[in-house]
Amino acid sequence: MQIKIAKDYAEMSRLAADMVSRLVESKPNAVLGLATGSTPLGLYEELVKRHRAGLDFSQVTTFNLDEYYGLDGDHPASYNYYMWEQLFSKINIAKERVNIPNGAAADPEEECRRYEARIAAAGGIDLQILGIGHNAHIGFNEPGTPFGTTTSLVKLAPATIKANARFFEREEDVPREAISMGIKSIMQSRSIVLLANGEGKADAVAAAIQGPVTEEVPASVLQLHPDCTFILDEAAARKLTS
Ligand code: GLP
Question: What does the pLDDT look like over 142-175, one tens digit per residue?
């Protein structure tokens, strides 16, 4: 596991954008795994800047980690809406190469199988971007999720519903379920970059990097990945012991 400590959020975002740019420049048809939430907003802003300076996304394929179940893709709090708003509408990505779980699927189990099959058909993910929840969840894989899970319909932990209520009018509006790539799906990515900023993530980051590898701390599984980088700002790195 590699750990990079940036002085602030802007530097964290630039370091992550450097890794994505290097990959896309060396492999124009790269397959990217993408995350949502507040954390990667700066990364996406950087990628838009780099696209305006010439970075070409026309052959890139993307797979998003997760989507709320029960929200249409045009709902402003859906991850589909977020991705188009923050990134896809501002770069030259081909619509047919964008993959996000369908939160409005009538048969969610079938949607999960279809999603895994599409990742496999694309040749797997080259670089997966992750954020981390306060309880160390990755994607929407909450504490207790078996490490062997693939894409599935999952229940959100009460703490996650609370944390994500800021994106909805009322806490009651937050969906209770989501379709999420599983821990196993994430671990199959050839490389992984986890971003975390702010003091609120310091405990989760320390547990993920220096605690025991346990299903109670989903991000701790990343200790077992052969090519995983954590990019942290100083606040998120505060609880790491040297
Ligand atoms: C959400 C997402 C995760 C994200 C996490 C942290 O629940 N499903 O993919 O990493 O929360 O979000 P934030 O970056 O807003 O702190």
Answer: 999 999 999 999 999 999 999 999 999 999 999 9
Q: Which fold has domain 2-233?
A: Rossmann fold (3.40.50)
Tell me the two tokens of residue 150.
């693939």
Provide the residue ranges of all domains of the chain, joining segments of one domain with +: 2-233
Look up 135 and say whether it is catalytic: yes
Distances (CA, A) of 77 to 67, 69, 103, 154, 165: 10, 12, 12, 18, 10
User: In this predicted model, what pLDDT tens digit does every residue of 37-51 receive, in sequence order?
Assistant: 999 999 999 999 999
Q: Could you say which of 46, 51, 64, 66 is catalytic?
A: 66
Residue 137 annotated to the active site: yes
Ligand 1, atom 9, residue with closest C-alpha: 139
The structure's pTM equals 0.97
- Give percent above pLDDT 70 in the chain: 100
